[in-house]
Amino acid sequence: MSKAIENLQAAQQRAMAVRPKVGGFPYLAEVLRQAGVLRNIWFLPACQSLYVTKAGPVVTLGTPLVTGSADVPPFNREALIKALRTDQAGESTFPEFLEASWRAGVVRYDVEFPARTVAYYGCHGEVYIESYPAVEVN
Q: How far is CA 56 from CA 18, 28, 53, 105, 113, in A?
Protein backbone atom coordinates (compact mmCIF):
# COMPACT_ATOMS: atom_id res chain seq x y z
CA MET A 1 0.00 0.00 0.00
CA SER A 2 1.36 3.42 -0.93
CA LYS A 3 1.91 6.31 1.47
CA ALA A 4 -0.85 8.22 -0.37
CA ILE A 5 -3.40 5.45 0.26
CA GLU A 6 -2.34 5.00 3.90
CA ASN A 7 -2.59 8.74 4.51
CA LEU A 8 -5.98 9.02 2.80
CA GLN A 9 -7.48 6.05 4.64
CA ALA A 10 -6.21 7.30 8.02
CA ALA A 11 -7.69 10.74 7.32
CA GLN A 12 -11.03 9.25 6.27
CA GLN A 13 -11.20 7.18 9.47
CA ARG A 14 -10.35 10.21 11.59
CA ALA A 15 -12.91 12.35 9.75
CA MET A 16 -15.69 9.82 10.30
CA ALA A 17 -14.88 9.81 14.02
CA VAL A 18 -15.02 13.61 14.44
CA ARG A 19 -17.75 14.69 12.02
CA PRO A 20 -21.19 15.41 13.41
CA LYS A 21 -24.23 13.77 11.79
CA VAL A 22 -25.76 17.16 10.94
CA GLY A 23 -23.54 19.50 8.92
CA GLY A 24 -20.68 17.03 8.92
CA PHE A 25 -19.21 17.59 5.46
CA PRO A 26 -17.09 20.63 6.40
CA TYR A 27 -15.45 18.54 9.16
CA LEU A 28 -14.72 15.69 6.77
CA ALA A 29 -13.34 18.17 4.25
CA GLU A 30 -11.13 19.90 6.83
CA VAL A 31 -9.61 16.63 8.06
CA LEU A 32 -8.86 15.65 4.46
CA ARG A 33 -7.38 19.11 3.75
CA GLN A 34 -5.16 18.86 6.83
CA ALA A 35 -3.99 15.45 5.58
CA GLY A 36 -2.85 16.97 2.28
CA VAL A 37 -5.85 16.20 0.07
CA LEU A 38 -6.14 19.00 -2.47
CA ARG A 39 -9.04 17.83 -4.58
CA ASN A 40 -11.66 15.07 -4.77
CA ILE A 41 -13.46 14.38 -8.03
CA TRP A 42 -16.49 12.05 -8.03
CA PHE A 43 -17.74 10.54 -11.26
CA LEU A 44 -21.39 9.51 -11.19
CA PRO A 45 -23.02 7.07 -11.73
CA ALA A 46 -19.85 4.92 -11.57
CA CYS A 47 -19.09 6.12 -8.01
CA GLN A 48 -15.45 6.50 -8.93
CA SER A 49 -13.62 8.95 -6.70
CA LEU A 50 -10.24 10.48 -7.56
CA TYR A 51 -8.32 12.04 -4.66
CA VAL A 52 -5.49 14.38 -5.62
CA THR A 53 -3.17 14.49 -2.61
CA LYS A 54 0.25 15.90 -1.83
CA ALA A 55 1.46 12.29 -1.46
CA GLY A 56 0.08 11.29 -4.88
CA PRO A 57 -3.27 10.60 -6.59
CA VAL A 58 -5.54 7.80 -5.35
CA VAL A 59 -8.61 6.35 -7.05
CA THR A 60 -11.42 4.65 -5.15
CA LEU A 61 -14.18 2.65 -6.81
CA GLY A 62 -17.51 2.41 -5.05
CA THR A 63 -20.69 0.55 -5.90
CA PRO A 64 -22.06 1.94 -9.19
CA LEU A 65 -25.47 3.58 -9.13
CA VAL A 66 -26.39 1.98 -12.48
CA THR A 67 -25.01 -0.83 -14.58
CA GLY A 68 -25.07 -1.25 -18.32
CA SER A 69 -26.47 1.60 -20.38
CA ALA A 70 -28.67 4.28 -18.86
CA ASP A 71 -30.17 7.57 -19.89
CA VAL A 72 -28.60 10.53 -18.11
CA PRO A 73 -31.19 12.54 -16.20
CA PRO A 74 -31.46 16.22 -17.15
CA PHE A 75 -29.61 18.62 -14.85
CA ASN A 76 -32.05 19.93 -12.24
CA ARG A 77 -30.54 22.60 -10.00
CA GLU A 78 -33.52 22.65 -7.61
CA ALA A 79 -33.43 18.87 -7.14
CA LEU A 80 -29.68 19.05 -6.52
CA ILE A 81 -30.08 21.78 -3.91
CA LYS A 82 -32.80 19.71 -2.23
CA ALA A 83 -30.44 16.70 -2.14
CA LEU A 84 -27.70 18.89 -0.65
CA ARG A 85 -29.95 20.38 2.05
CA THR A 86 -31.32 16.92 2.94
CA ASP A 87 -27.77 15.61 3.32
CA GLN A 88 -26.62 18.68 5.26
CA ALA A 89 -29.52 18.19 7.68
CA GLY A 90 -28.34 14.64 8.35
CA GLU A 91 -31.47 13.19 6.75
CA SER A 92 -29.75 11.02 4.14
CA THR A 93 -26.88 8.60 3.94
CA PHE A 94 -23.96 9.24 1.59
CA PRO A 95 -25.20 6.58 -0.90
CA GLU A 96 -28.66 8.23 -0.82
CA PHE A 97 -27.03 11.61 -1.48
CA LEU A 98 -25.14 10.19 -4.46
CA GLU A 99 -28.33 8.63 -5.83
CA ALA A 100 -30.29 11.88 -5.42
CA SER A 101 -27.46 13.85 -7.08
CA TRP A 102 -27.47 11.43 -10.02
CA ARG A 103 -31.27 11.74 -10.36
CA ALA A 104 -30.72 15.54 -10.40
CA GLY A 105 -28.48 15.12 -13.46
CA VAL A 106 -25.08 15.38 -11.76
CA VAL A 107 -22.46 13.38 -13.67
CA ARG A 108 -19.44 14.69 -11.75
CA TYR A 109 -18.62 16.80 -8.76
CA ASP A 110 -15.34 18.36 -7.78
CA VAL A 111 -14.32 19.34 -4.25
CA GLU A 112 -11.53 21.93 -4.03
CA PHE A 113 -10.35 21.67 -0.42
CA PRO A 114 -8.12 24.80 -0.28
CA ALA A 115 -10.94 26.93 -1.76
CA ARG A 116 -13.69 25.17 0.28
CA THR A 117 -15.95 24.78 -2.76
CA VAL A 118 -17.83 21.97 -4.45
CA ALA A 119 -18.83 22.22 -8.11
CA TYR A 120 -21.56 19.90 -9.42
CA TYR A 121 -21.66 19.29 -13.18
CA GLY A 122 -24.25 18.11 -15.67
CA CYS A 123 -23.30 16.46 -18.95
CA HIS A 124 -24.03 19.58 -21.03
CA GLY A 125 -21.73 21.89 -19.07
CA GLU A 126 -24.28 22.90 -16.45
CA VAL A 127 -22.67 23.71 -13.13
CA TYR A 128 -23.76 24.56 -9.61
CA ILE A 129 -21.05 25.71 -7.19
CA GLU A 130 -21.45 25.86 -3.43
CA SER A 131 -19.00 26.99 -0.76
CA TYR A 132 -18.82 25.30 2.60
CA PRO A 133 -17.79 26.94 5.87
CA ALA A 134 -14.37 26.74 7.47
CA VAL A 135 -14.39 24.68 10.68
CA GLU A 136 -11.77 23.90 13.30
CA VAL A 137 -10.76 20.31 13.85
CA ASN A 138 -8.12 19.53 16.46
A: 25, 19, 5, 30, 15
**23 or 66: which carries more pLDDT confidence?**
66
Please count the other Cβ atoms lying within 10 Å of the Cβ belonging to residue 32. Answer: 23
**Contact predicate 100/79, CB 8 Å:** yes
Give the span between the Cα atoms of 85 and 82, in whole angstroms.
5
Count the Cβ atoms, other than its own, within 10 Å of residue 84. 20
Give 76's pLDDT tier (boundaries 50, 70, 90). very high
Among 103, 99, 94, 132, CA closest to 115? 132
pLDDT tens readout for residues 27-45: 999 999 999 999 999 999 9
pLDDT tens-digit readout, 85-102 = 999 999 999 999 999 999
Domain 3-131 belongs in CATH node 3.40.50.1970: no
Q: Where are the domains of the chain?
A: 3-131
